[in-house]
Specification:
Layout (H helix, E strand, L loop, with lengths): L2 H16 L4 H24 L4 H26 L14 H33 L3 H17 L1 H19 L3 H35 L5 H14 L1 H18 L3 H26 L5 H27 L14
């Protein structure tokens, strides 16, 4: 039941980011998180509703965040007047949204499927490796906040500048995003070679899980370095309304490297998770290569994206 509210929040937040305001969405989600924690204590602690109470608290907090965002949009009027006529479907608007959105949704879907397949492969190795992979996935999800935020940043800034006829500034945003993400990813990767096991140890006291998780994290962490590059390119492709490039590089990296690599390394290295972690990073390496090729193709063609059809101009 919370899916419509998650969708509405993401749409409203994207509008604010498109206007150059990334702080307001942060405030909305901060309020939702605070409300969620309070409702969890209320529903699970006071009313003893268990997991259903946790789900209800999450859904209600999402509803509240959307309500606050809509109220802010209507009352503060941040440059976008919202009328009833705006809710009437328009073919050319929907076409533009679907043209960009469908490849992105398929891309995210394939990524989640790949995570599920890798989890299945890890589970087949036994409880220790399954627990180790589960913990490391959570750690990586946290570290990936930097690359994923850069994807949104490059997409928003790139679309704004392309819409304004400043393709040079869109390219600058791409270059700086790659510099930031690769710097962060390299530092994180090097540090994890020394502190991987203590980091995994924050989530469990099982020494076998800590050892296996440390191995997996030492290999997997290099994906954070490489993903920063192809995430930034994906944001740029979306800004150019060429989200199919973003879909293609993820699709081929998953089909050709990530899943086969995870399966083969699991089969031929049954006593260590380190190669399995590297297999994921190898998938990102293929994505980076494909992104560079797609980018050079765009530059060769003179980046002929019509300004009137850019996301910044609707």
């Amino acid at each position: 039941m919370g899916i419509p509210f998650i969708t509405a929040y993401n749409i409203i937040s994207s509008i604010f980011r498109g206007l150059g305001d990334s702080k307001s969405p942060m405030y909305f989600i901060a309020i939702a998180c605070a409300v969620n924690i309070g409702l969890d204590y209320l529903f699970m602690g006071v009313f003893h509703l268990g997991p259903a109470g946790a789900a209800l608290g999450t859904t209600l907090s999402q509803t509240i965040s959307v309500g606050i965002a809509l109220l802010f949009l209507l009352k503060r009027k941040p440059g976008i007047p919202l009328r009833k006529t705006d809710l009437k479907p328009k073919k050319y608007i929907l076409g533009g949204i679907l043209k960009t959105g469908i490849p992105i949704s398929l891309q995210d879907g394939f990524i989640q499927i790949s995570f599920l397949v890798i989890t299945i492969i890890a589970n087949s190795r036994g409880l220790t490796d399954a627990a180790a992979v589960g913990i490391v996935e959570k750690i990586i999800s946290f570290l990936f906040l930097v690359p994923s935020s850069m994807l949104s940043t490059v997409s928003a800034l790139g679309a704004q500048n392309i819409g304004a006829g400043r393709k040079d500034r869109a390219l600058q945003a791409l270059r700086y995003a790659i510099l930031i993400t690769t710097s962060f990813g390299f530092i994180a990767a090097v540090l994890m070679q020394w502190i991987a096991q203590p980091v995994v140890g924050l989530f469990t006291e099982d020494s076998a899980v800590i050892f296996a998780g440390g191995q997996y994290l030492k290999g997997y962490i290099w994906d954070c370095f490489l993903a920063g590059i192809h995430f930034s390119f994906s944001g740029y492709f979306c800004a150019c309304q060429r989200s199919e490039f973003s879909f293609l590089h993820n699709f081929f990296s998953i089909i050709l490297v990530r899943i086969p690599g995870a399966y083969l390394t699991s089969k031929y290295f049954p006593h260590t998770l380190f190669p399995m972690g590297l297999a994921t990073a190898a998938g990102s390496l293929l994505s980076v290569i494909l992104c560079v090729l797609f980018f050079l193709t765009l530059r060769r063609k003179g980046h002929k994206t019509p300004v009137s059809s850019c996301p910044a101009n609707g």
